[in-house]
Design brief:
Layout (H helix, E strand, L loop, with lengths): L2 E2 L4 E6 L26 E2 L2 E2 L2 H21 L4 E5 L30 E3 H12 L6 E4 L3 E5 L5 E5 L4 H9 L3 E4 L5 E2 L5 E8 L7 E6 L5 H7 L10 E5 L4 H5 L11 E8 L1
Parallel strand pairs: 1-11
Antiparallel strand pairs: 2-9, 2-10, 3-4, 5-6, 5-7, 7-8, 8-9, 12-13, 12-15, 14-15
Helix pairs in contact: 1-2, 1-3
Length: about 260
Amino acid sequence: MKVVFDIKYQWRITKYNPIFRNDKGHYLLDEWTCPSEIGNIINGDSFTLEKYLVIEHAYVETIIEFLIEQKQYSLRVIQASNRLISHEDKKSVLYDHEFGEINIKEDMIANINEIRIICKMILRNFADCQLYSKDNFFVHFGWDYYMFIGSNQKSLTAIKFATNSGLFVEEFSSPYYFEEKDTTRLVQWNEIDVEIKIVVGNEEIKDVPLEEYRKVFNLSDEHPVFGLFEITIERMDFFQKFLNHKMDFRKYEYGFWAGH
């Protein structure tokens, strides 16, 4: 998952001490990488919920400190997955009642309190999305509890807060960052009425203004038009004029994908 920006400063902010990386950047110590490991014995030590929450709090409040320092009090949600929280999810020790009070939607604007909740949900694997403010700020979450923040400010106060909270801040370009010029956009399709959905065809679309995509998908002017979007039959006429493939909704399901 990558996001389109023009951001001056980028950092990798994690619980992993860089002195334990080899010359290829691989981390050499055996540490927990996911909250699902709570209850396990790691390096002879019990990984408890309490220990996890200390680290999670440091991650989430570091994000808030970055936002406050640059007087940024909201972020836009993009690439939001459609994951539904199941009855089994709600039985987890990691589930918080406030998770049920927020409806994460593509292109929504989240305030500071909502950002806290969304980031907790992402870190606990109850949600999947990215947060950003166009050409100004982003938060990316990767696998294994990696977090990347980008800003157009040096953010020295927030970096100090992260360090004092036990995290490690490294100047590092987010692997989920790229520019509009590197974006590929295409229509892809798979057969309907099959148990396993496999893309059976795709066709690239070029030279269409972003404004047209935003209009057809009802997106804001700030949305970078990145991610995966459903193409309904109502949107068929818009896309058919750019394709050699003859769209057939009786046989295929269609999606619009934009990425790198």
